């Protein structure tokens, strides 16, 4: 298989275990599987989201909070049968959903695991929690298996995407991917307790000094989708120890700039949005990963 799972199109033969740009071969590697309580309220709910964190990543974000798994490759190898069993176990623990965290580079293998789990009784929604640098063709193969898409939209201007994530034409590919996601799910659907069952939430993490870029993203999302999707405007950016050479990012978000972004969203008329308080900042919000 010449890998086409993301816009990089590195075309390695994953079936013969050639290693792609992301670092992954033909075996699934995970760093953590547990109930997770720090997603948006309709995802985490009261019982937690059944999160499975996948090792490796197709992005190279210099500020990555999960760098232990994206860069240092912490985790353990499992097969499709074990992954399917993990999904069922998380459901049995009471998870509101199965939350696939950074799944892009394993999407074809996940199809098999999800199909197996659904045969074995998986009934809760499946969340595809990704960085937004996605292949539309790969997403189409997930149609009917994923209920909720939770992508990032990190950058509007390509110079930031290239500098901070080594992701050329990020906005182009991300916008096409979100269009496909919305086509698959339609408008958001919630159960009687406010837990999301279907739909799209687009996350945007505000970065230091990029207020104008953030406004362009919020503007694009609202003009394109109105209130048919949710926008999660995040201010939890935390400077990490590995930011050498990127001094402009080695600081937290100034509250007045975040407030300015929220005010801008409000003036646009956005109603379906999530915002964060200053309490959402710090390494305590970064999950613990182990081999």
Beta-strand share of residues: 15-25%
Shape: globular
CATH T-level topology: TIM Barrel
The number of helical elements comes to 9
Mean pLDDT: 92
Biggest sheet layout: 10 strands, mixed
Uncertain regions spanning at least 5 consecutive residues:
281-291
Please characterize this protein's 3D structure.
- This protein is α/β, with parallel strands linked by helices and 291 residues long.
- The protein has one domain (31-285): Aldolase class I (TIM Barrel), CATH 3.20.20.
- It is built from 9 helices and 10 strands.
- Strands 1, 2, 3, 4, 5, 6, 7, 8, 9 and 10 form a 10-stranded mixed sheet that branches.
- The two termini are 29 Å apart.
Summarize the structure.
The protein is α/β, with parallel strands linked by helices.
Characteristics:
9 helices; TIM Barrel; globular; 10-stranded mixed sheet
Describe the secondary structure blueprint for this structure.
Blueprint: E1 28-36, H1 41-44, E2 49-54, H2 67-70, E3 76-78, H3 80-92, E4 98-101, H4 107-119, E5 126-130, H5 136-140, E6 148-151, H6 158-165, H7 170-185, E7 189-190, E8 196-205, H8 211-225, E9 230-234, H9 255-268, E10 273-275
Parallel strand pairs: 2-4, 4-5, 5-6, 6-8, 8-9, 9-10
Antiparallel strand pairs: 1-2, 1-3, 7-8
Helix pairs in contact: 3-4, 8-9
């Amino acid at each position: 298989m010449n890998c086409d799972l993301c816009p990089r199109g590195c075309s390695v033969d994953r079936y013969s275990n050639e290693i792609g740009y992301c670092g992954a071969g033909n075996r699934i590697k995970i760093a953590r599987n547990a109930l997770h309580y720090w997603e948006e309220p309709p995802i985490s709910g009261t019982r937690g989201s059944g999160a499975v964190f996948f090792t490796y990543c197709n992005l190279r974000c210099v500020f990555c909070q999960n760098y232990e798994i994206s860069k240092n490759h912490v985790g353990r190898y499992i097969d499709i049968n074990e992954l399917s069993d993990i999904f069922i176990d998380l459901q049995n623990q009471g998870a509101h959903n199965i939350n696939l965290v950074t799944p892009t580079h394993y999407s074809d293998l996940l199809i098999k695991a999800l199909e197996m789990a659904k045969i074995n009784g998986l009934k809760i929604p499946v969340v595809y929690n990704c960085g937004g640098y996605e292949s539309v063709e790969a997403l189409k193969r997930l149609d009917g298996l994923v209920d909720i898409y939770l992508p990032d939209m990190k950058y509007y201007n390509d110079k930031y995407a290239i500098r901070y994530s080594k992701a050329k034409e990020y906005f182009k590919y991300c916008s096409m991917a979100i269009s496909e996601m919305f086509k698959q799910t339609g408008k958001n659907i919630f159960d009687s307790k406010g837990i999301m069952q279907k739909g799209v939430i687009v996350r945007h993490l505000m970065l230091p000094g990029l207020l104008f870029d953030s406004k362009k993203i919020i503007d694009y999302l609202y003009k394109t989708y109105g209130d048919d999707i949710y926008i999660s405007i995040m201010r939890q950016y935390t400077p990490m120890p590995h930011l050498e050479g990127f001094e402009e990012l080695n600081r937290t978000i100034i509250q007045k700039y975040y407030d300015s972004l929220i005010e801008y969203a409000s003036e646009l008329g956005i109603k379906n949005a999530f915002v964060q308080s200053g309490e959402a900042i710090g390494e305590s919000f970064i999950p613990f990963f182990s081999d």
